[in-house]
Write a structure and sequence with these properties.
The complex is a heterotrimer of chains A (519), B (322) and C (303). With 519 residues, chain A is of the alpha+beta class. Chain A has 15 helices and 19 strands. In chain A, the strands form five sheets. In chain A, strands 1, 8, 9, 10, 11, 12, 13, 16 and 17 form a nine-stranded mixed beta sheet that branches. Chain A is globular and about 70 Å long. The chains are: A alpha+beta (519), B mainly alpha (322), C mainly alpha (303). Chains in contact: A-B, A-C, B-C.
C-alpha cells in the first residue's frame, strides 16, 4: 500500500519533471537584466520589457507600434477624461479576477511617491469606478494623447498586493526586498517560474491567458539569461546556446548574417542619440574657459559642425544609424523631413565659429558618457573626442555605467553629456516635457525658451490636431536654430535570431513573445 | 599542539578584525550612504530620517560595533543596485563558484601531480622537456587570454561546448548543482580548464622540483643500492616523500583558484560570486564589495588554518613559525 | 686579469653566457623595453593624441592583408589608431606600471625586511606576521580588491585620471612580503658577520650600517624576485585592465587593448586583439624565462 503510493508519487514526479519533447523553449539573451520584477519601481527599458511578458496594461502596442486593446477592450475620450471598457473574464495568474478595482489600485500605486512611473501616470488625476468593468480615468482638462501614455503602466492585483504587503512600490524605507521584487502576479501570457537576478529567469506559458489562440506565438517556455560581455553574447548565439540576441554588437551583425542558420533583423528604432551642452550655468564646472562658452550659440553650432556624423555612421555604427539634427526620430509626431537632415560636417567653419566666439584656441571640457546603455555609446564618445580635438577643444572623456551616468544628468551636474531618448508615446510632447522644457526633469542643458515652454504646456490640452501639429512644428524650428543639443543619429535596431524562431522586430526594442513562432 | 592552534586562531581573528575595519570604512566613506539608498528626488526630511534610521550620527565606535554585530549575523544590508539582502545574494552565487573551484582543483591536482612526477623521474626525456617548456608558456599566458582562446576554438569554431554561463542546474533545496546533468558538465569544462591551467603549471613545477630533490637523497640512493625496482623506488619511496608538501599545495591551490575565479567567471559569464563582485565594483555597490571582502578573507583564513593544522598533524617535526 | 675577464668569471655572467635561452630572453626583454620606452621616437603616430586620429581610417586590416594601407603596418583599431603605435605606447604603459609596481613592492619589502632582520624582536615579529598573513591571499585577488576599493574611494571624476596610480599601488602593495622575507633572511646572515659587528662597535648608526653594508648583500636574491615579480605585475595589470578595472581606453595599456579588441574578435577584426595579446605574451614569457634562469643560476642546488 505504502509502496504503491510511493510509486504513484514518483511516477507523477517523473512526468512533471521530465520536459515534454514537443515543448517549445525559447532561449534568449541581452546585455542587462531587468532590475526588479516590481512593475512600478523602475522605468527602464529592460525592466519594462521583462515585466511586459507577465504584466499587462490597459492598452498596448503591437510590433508596428500601433495602439491595440489589451486589458481594455475599447476607450473613448470625454471633456475631463477617458472611459475604458475593461476586458471581461481576465484572471491574474493566481486565479483572482481582474476588475475595475485593480485598475484604480494600480494607478494609485503607479502614482505613489516611490514609483518611477509618476510622470507618466501624472495626468490621470483620479480613477472613477463606474462598474466592475468600466473605469473613467479623470484628467485635469482634456488630454488628447492619454491612451498613448498608458502602454507601460501595468496592472496589478489589489488583493495579491495587499496580502503580500506590496501596496507601495519598493523604496528606500524597505529594509528587506519586498515580495514583488522576485514574485509576480500579472494577467499576461507568461508566468514567472523562477528568477535568479543577473543569472537566469524562466517564464512559462499561461494556459489561462485571455489571448490564448488569438496570437501566432507558440512558445511554451522562455529562458532568459543576461550576458553583459558583448563578445560572449555573440558567441552564445553563434554556438547555438541561445536562439535570440536582443542586442548583438553592431560590428558582429555581418558575421551573424553570414553564419548558417542565423539571421539578423533590423529596423529604425524610436530612439535618438545626442550630446547635451549646459548653457544655463554661469561657469562650466570642468572647463578652463572663462565663463560658459556654451551660452554662445556660435560655440554650440561649432560643436554641431565639428562632429562628423557620417563617419560615425559608417565606421562606429557599421552603417546602422541615421544621422540627424533632431533629437527625435521619424515615426514620432513632430519629426519632419525638412527638419530631420543633419547639420552636416565642416571642421573649418566650426573652427572659425569658435574663433568668432572668442575661443580661437578652443577650451577644455569633460564629456560624460555611459558605457553600457546605447549602441556603441562609449565608442561614439571616443570618436567625438578626436573630432573636437581637431577644432582645438580638448575633451576629457569619462565613460561610466549608466547607473552612475544618469544621476549626473538628473542632478544637472554635468557640462557636456551623452543621452539617448526613446519616445513610447510617439508624440513630441514626451520629448519637450522631459528634454526641452525649462523645468524638464532630464533637461540638463539649462535650455529655457519661453515659447517652447508655452507650447509644451499648450499641446497637452489642445484637441484640434492641426493646430497642435503646427505648434509642435513651431517649437522644433526654434529648437533647430537654438541648438541646445548636438544630435548625432537615430539608432537602428538589430536583432540576432536563429532560424528556429521567428520574432517580429519592433522599433521600441521590446520583445513580444506572444508573436514569437518556433519551428 | 594546543598552543600552536591557539596562536593560529588568534592570528585569524586579528586578520578578520582588520578586514572588517576596511569593510566598515568602505561603507562609511565611499560616497554618501544615504544618497545610495534614496531616490533622486527624496526630500531633506526623508534624508534626515534615513540618516537616523541608519544611525549615521552615532559615534564612529558605536557604528563599528553595530557593524560587527550585524556582520557576525551575516547581515550586510541591501545591495544598492538590486535592492536585495547581500548575504542571500552571496549564498545563491556560492554553489556556482565552489563547484567551479572544485572541478578545477581536481584537474589541476591530478594532471599537475601526474606530470610533475613524470618530468621528475624522466628528467632527460624530450617529452619532459616539451612539458616543461609548455608549462612556462602556460605561466606566461594570462588567464583571460586562455579563456578567450578556448571559447573561440571550442565554442564558436568547433561548436562542441557552450561558450558561457552555467546550465543544467538541479536544485537540491540547499544547493543548486550543475554536476548532475550532462548539460551542466558541458558548461563547466571550459571554465574549469581555464581556471586550472595556471595552478596546474605551478603544481607541476613544484612537484617536479620536490621529486628531483627527493631522488638525490641518501635513502633513495640506498634503496637503489639494495636493488629495489625503479618502479618501487619511484612510487613507494620517492612519491610518498613528496606528499607532505602536497598538502600545502592543495591549500595554495584552492586559494589561487578562488582568486582567479573572479577572472574566469567574468570571461565565461559564470554566475558565481566573482562575477558578482566585479559587477559590484563597476556599480560601486558597496554592500556587496564589503561583504565579498569579508567573505573571501574568511575563506582564506579558514583554508590556511586547516592547512596549518594538517601540516602539523602529518609532520610534527615541523613547528611552523616557532 | 682585466676587468672584463674578472667580470666574465663571475658565476652569474658565466652561466648567462652559456645559456642560449637566457640570452634570447634577455634580448627580447631588452628590445621590448627599449621599443616601448622609446615609443615616441619609433612609433609612426601618437595614438594618445586625439587630434591625430581620423575615424575614417578605423578598422583597417594589417598592411599585407587586402584592404590594408602601407602606413598602418599592423592595421588600425576601431577608432582609427595605428595598431603598431598603440601597441608600443600601450606596452610602454604596461611595462611602466609593472616596473613601478615592482619598485614600490621592492622598496617597501626590502625596507621592512632589512629593518625586521636587523632590529629583530617585536618589530620583526609584527612585520613578519603581517607578511605571512598577506602571503596567504593570492596577489591578483588582493590587487583586484585594493584596486576596487581604491576606485571606490576616488570620486567619479578623478577615477580615470588616477587609474594608473591606483593600479600601481594595488599591485605594488601585493608583492612586498616576498621581498621582505628574502631581505630579512639575507640581513640576518649579514648582521652576524664580523665586519658588521665591528661597525656596530665603532658606533656607526644603525641606519648607516643597514644602508651601506647590509642592503647591498640582499640585492642578489631580491633581483630574482623582482624579475619574476615584473612578469606577474605585467599580467596583473593586463588582467585588471581586461576586467575593465584598470587603465582607461583613452590611453590604453596592452590589457585594455585586448579588452577592446575582444569585442571585435568575432566580427573578423582579429588584429585589434591578436597583436596586443601576442605582444603581451612574448613580453611576459621573456621576462619569465629570464627570471627562471636567474633563479636557477643563483640557486645551484636546482641546476
Amino acid at each position: 500500500m505504502q509502496f504503491t503510493k510511493l510509486l504513484a508519487v514518483s511516477a507523477m514526479a517523473l512526468t512533471v519533471s521530465s520536459p515534454a519533447l514537443a515543448e517549445n523553449v525559447l532561449r534568449w539573451t541581452s546585455q542587462g537584466d531587468a532590475l526588479t520584477m516590481d512593475p512600478h519601481s523602475q522605468n527602464e527599458g529592460p525592466t519594462i520589457a521583462m515585466n511586459g511578458q507577465i504584466y499587462e496594461s490597459l492598452v498596448t502596442r503591437d510590433a508596428d507600434l500601433t495602439l491595440q486593446p489589451e486589458l481594455a477592450e475599447s476607450w473613448e475620450p470625454g471633456p475631463d477624461g477617458w472611459t475604458f471598457k475593461l476586458r471581461k473574464g481576465v484572471k491574474f495568474h493566481d486565479g483572482a479576477d481582474f476588475t475595475a478595482e485593480d485598475v484604480a489600485f494600480s494607478f494609485e500605486r503607479a502614482k505613489h511617491e516611490a514609483s518611477d512611473y509618476k510622470e507618466q501616470a501624472k495626468s490621470v488625476a483620479s480613477v472613477e469606478i463606474i462598474d466592475d468593468y468600466t473605469v473613467k480615468l479623470v484628467t485635469e482638462g482634456p488630454n488628447p494623447i492619454l491612451p498613448n501614455q498608458l502602454t507601460s503602466i501595468y496592472m496589478m492585483d489589489k488583493g495579491w498586493s495587499e496580502a503580500n504587503n506590496v501596496v507601495a512600490p519598493q523604496d528606500f524605507k524597505a529594509k528587506e526586498e519586498t515580495y514583488a521584487v522576485r514574485n509576480s502576479n500579472g494577467t499576461g501570457p507568461f508566468t514567472l517560474v523562477s528568477r535568479a537576478p543577473d543569472e537566469m529567469t524562466v517564464l512559462a506559458r499561461n494556459p489561462d491567458w485571455w489571448g490564448e489562440g488569438m496570437f501566432p506565438g507558440n512558445v511554451d517556455k522562455i529562458e532568459y539569461r543576461p550576458i553583459t560581455n558583448a563578445a560572449t553574447r555573440v558567441a552564445a548565439l553563434l554556438s547555438g546556446e541561445v536562439d535570440f540576441v536582443l542586442d548583438p554588437p553592431l560590428q558582429d551583425v555581418s558575421r551573424i548574417e553570414a553564419s548558417d542558420g542565423l539571421s539578423v533583423k533590423t529596423v529604425a528604432q524610436i530612439r535618438s542619440i545626442f550630446f547635451g551642452m549646459d548653457q544655463g550655468i554661469d561657469k562650466l564646472r570642468s572647463s578652463d574657459a572663462e565663463g560658459n562658452p556654451f551660452k554662445d550659440v556660435k560655440v554650440r553650432e561649432a560643436f554641431n559642425l565639428a562632429i562628423d556624423k557620417d563617419a560615425i555612421q559608417r565606421v562606429v555604427m557599421e552603417g546602422l544609424s541615421f544621422p540627424t539634427s533632431m533629437i527625435t526620430p521619424p515615426g514620432v509626431l513632430g519629426n519632419t523631413p525638412e527638419n530631420d537632415p543633419s547639420y552636416g560636417f565642416d571642421a573649418a567653419k566650426a573652427k572659425a565659429l569658435l574663433a568668432e566666439a572668442g575661443y580661437p584656441d578652443g577650451f577644455s571640457i569633460q564629456l560624460d558618457c555611459p558605457n553600457n546603455r546605447y549602441n556603441n555609446d562609449e565608442k561614439i564618445c571616443q570618436a567625438a573626442v578626436a573630432m573636437l580635438a581637431k577644432i582645438g577643444v580638448k575633451v576629457n572623456l569619462d565613460a561610466i555605467p549608466k547607473a552612475q551616468h544618469f544621476p549626473k544628468i538628473q542632478k544637472r551636474e554635468t557640462d557636456f553629456y551623452m543621452l539617448g531618448w526613446g519616445v513610447p508615446t510617439l508624440d513630441s510632447h514626451y520629448v519637450f516635457s522631459y528634454l526641452l522644457d525649462g523645468e524638464g526633469s532630464w533637461n540638463a542643458t539649462g535650455y529655457n525658451n519661453a515659447r517652447v515652454n508655452e507650447i509644451t504646456k499648450a499641446i497637452t490640452t489642445e484637441i484640434d490636431i492641426d493646430k497642435r501639429t503646427a505648434m509642435i512644428d513651431e517649437a522644433w524650428t526654434i529648437i533647430k536654430a537654438d541648438m541646445p543639443y548636438v544630435p548625432i543619429h537615430h539608432q537602428v535596431l538589430a536583432w540576432g535570431l536563429s532560424d528556429k524562431v521567428d520574432i517580429p522586430i519592433a522599433a521600441d526594442d521590446a520583445f513580444r513573445p506572444r508573436f514569437a513562432v518556433m519551428k | 599542539m594546543f598552543f600552536f592552534i591557539l596562536k593560529r586562531l588568534a592570528q585569524s581573528v586579528l586578520v578578520m578584525a582588520i578586514v572588517s575595519a576596511v569593510s566598515f570604512s568602505l561603507f562609511n566613506f565611499v560616497g554618501d550612504p544615504v544618497n545610495n539608498m534614496v531616490g533622486q528626488d527624496a526630500t531633506r526630511e526623508q534624508r534626515i530620517e534615513i540618516r537616523e534610521q541608519l544611525g549615521l550620527d552615532d559615534p564612529i565606535l558605536t557604528q563599528y560595533t553595530r557593524f560587527l554585530g550585524n556582520m557576525l549575523q551575516g547581515d550586510f544590508g541591501l545591495s544598492y543596485r538590486i535592492k536585495r539582502p547581500v548575504d542571500q545574494l552571496i549564498m545563491e552565487r556560492l554553489p556556482a563558484t565552489l563547484e567551479l573551484v572544485f572541478v578545477s582543483a581536481i584537474i589541476a591536482l591530478v594532471v599537475g601531480i601526474g606530470l610533475g612526477v613524470y618530468t621528475g623521474i624522466r628528467r632527460k626525456s624530450w617529452v619532459s622537456r616539451v612539458i616543461l617548456s609548455v608549462s612556462l608558456v602556460g605561466v606566461s599566458l594570462p588567464t583571460f587570454i586562455i579563456g578567450i582562446g578556448l571559447i573561440y576554438i571550442f565554442a564558436v569554431y568547433m561548436r562542441w561546448l557552450p561558450s558561457s554561463g552555467r546550465s543544467g542546474t538541479v536544485d537540491l533545496g540547499w544547493w543548486k548543482t550543475s554536476l548532475l546533468t550532462v548539460d551542466g558538465w558541458r558548461a563547466i569544462i571550459l571554465p574549469a580548464i581555464t581556471l586550472s591551467l595556471f595552478q596546474l603549471t605551478l603544481i607541476l613545477r613544484l612537484v617536479r622540483a620536490e621529486m628531483l630533490e627527493v631522488m638525490q637523497t641518501d635513502f633513495i640512493k640506498f634503496a637503489r643500492a639494495r636493488g629495489l625496482s625503479e618502479r618501487a623506488i619511484n612510487f613507494r619511496h620517492a612519491l610518498r616523500n613528496t606528499l607532505v608538501p602536497v598538502i600545502t599545495i592543495i591549500g595554495l591551490n584552492i586559494g589561487g583558484l578562488i582568486a582567479f575565479s573572479v577572472i574566469t567567471e567574468t570571461v565565461f559569464q559564470w554566475p558565481g560570486t566573482g562575477l558578482m563582485f566585479i559587477q559590484a565594483v563597476d556599480f560601486v555597490d558597496v554592500p556587496i564589495m564589503a561583504a565579498y571582502l569579508v567573505f573571501v578573507a574568511l575563506l582564506f583564513v579558514l583554508i590556511n588554518l586547516v592547512v596549518d593544522i594538517l601540516y602539523f598533524v602529518v609532520d610534527p617535526r615541523i613547528r611552523l613559525g616557532d | 686579469m682585466t676587468r672584463w675577464e674578472r667580470f666574465k668569471d663571475n658565476d652569474i655572467v658565466w652561466s648567462f653566457l652559456h645559456s642560449p635561452g637566457a640570452m634570447i630572453a634577455a634580448a627580447i626583454t631588452v628590445i621590448s623595453i627599449l621599443a616601448c620606452v622609446f615609443a615616441p621616437l619609433i612609433a609612426p603616430f601618437d595614438p594618445f593624441d586625439p587630434s591625430q586620429i581620423s575615424l575614417w581610417d578605423g578598422k583597417l586590416p594589417p598592411a599585407w592583408v587586402e584592404g590594408g594601407q602601407p602606413q598602418y603596418l599592423l592595421g588600425t583599431d576601431n577608432q582609427g589608431r595605428d595598431m603598431l603605435s598603440t601597441i608600443l605606447y600601450g606596452g610602454r604603459l604596461s611595462i611602466l606600471v609593472g616596473l613601478a609596481a615592482v619598485c614600490l613592492g621592492m622598496v617597501l619589502g626590502v625596507t621592512l625586511g632589512v629593518i625586521s632582520g636587523y632590529v629583530g624582536g617585536v618589530t620583526d615579529a609584527v612585520i613578519m606576521r603581517i607578511a605571512d598573513v598577506q602571503l596567504t591571499i593570492p596577489g591578483i585577488l588582493l590587487a583586484i580588491l585594493i584596486n576596487g576599493i581604491g576606485r571606490a574611494f576616488l570620486p567619479l571624476e578623478l577615477r580615470q585620471e588616477f587609474a594608473v596610480y591606483v593600479v600601481i599601488i594595488a599591485i605594488g602593495l601585493t608583492d612586498w612580503p616576498q621581498f621582505a622575507r628574502v631581505a630579512r633572511g639575507a640581513t640576518m646572515v649579514e648582521a652576524n658577520k664580523e665586519y658588521v659587528q665591528a661597525a656596530r662597535i665603532i658606533g656607526l648608526p644603525a641606519w648607516l650600517i643597514m644602508v651601506r653594508h647590509v642592503l647591498p648583500n640582499t640585492l642578489r636574491p631580491v633581483l630574482v624576485i623582482a624579475t619574476i615579480g615584473l612578469a606577474l605585475a605585467i599580467i596583473a595589470e593586463a588582467t585588471l585592465s581586461f576586467l575593465g578595472q584598470g587603465i582607461p581606453p583613452t590611453t590604453p595599456s596592452l590589457g585594455t587593448l585586448i579588452r577592446v579588441g575582444n569585442e571585435y574578435l568575432f566580427s573578423g577584426l582579429w588584429w585589434i586583439t591578436f597583436f596586443p595579446a601576442i605582444a603581451l605574451v612574448v613580453l611576459v614569457f621573456a621576462v619569465n624565462l629570464l627570471g627562471d634562469w636567474m633563479r636557477d643560476a643563483l640557486n645551484p642546488k636546482l641546476r
